[in-house]
Design brief:
7 helices; mainly alpha
Length: about 150
């Protein structure tokens, strides 16, 4: 961020990165349980018809985990439905799935999503959210300031 101004696009990219980092974290395992059985060595006949093992991306860096934690804190500034919409879009869900999950039409869900990104950008730029104003007003003001 060179000029010190957050935009909704920058917020969207940071939230998408946070969702990606969360997917790349190692799985949580119950500690203290292990197997004493030896590892099975597969032969070719055993492998026929099996799915190939799922490859995972390498674990995220410490800096990206810190940015993820910071971005997750931003979600506290939003309403519950807006958080759900923003996080589903950051995770790469299609609009059809988002609309079905939150029970809104495509246009309404898009306006909630855009409003949430604008609220985060507004707050990150050090401004207080204007009270008693519509979502469209906040969206317009953020677009004008960019």
């Amino acid at each position: 961020m060179a000029d010190g101004q957050w935009t909704p696009l920058m917020v969207e990219e940071r939230l998408a990165e946070a969702a990606d980092v969360l997917k790349r974290l190692p799985p949580v395992k119950v500690q203290g349980y292990y197997s004493l059985w030896p590892r099975y060595i597969y032969e070719f006949a055993d492998l026929v018809g099996q799915e190939p093992p799922q490859l995972r991306l390498p674990p995220p860096s410490a800096a990206s985990i810190t940015r993820m934690d910071e971005a997750m804190e931003w979600l506290k500034w939003l309403e519950a439905d807006d958080v759900r919409i923003v996080w589903m879009r950051a995770s790469g869900k299609r609009w059809k799935a988002v609309c079905r999950a939150v029970g809104l039409a495509r246009a309404a869900a898009h306006e909630h999503w855009l409003y949430a990104l604008c609220v985060i950008a507004w707050r990150l730029n050090g401004r207080g959210l204007p009270g008693n104003r519509s979502k469209r007003y906040v969206i317009q003001r953020v677009k004008e300031s960019v």
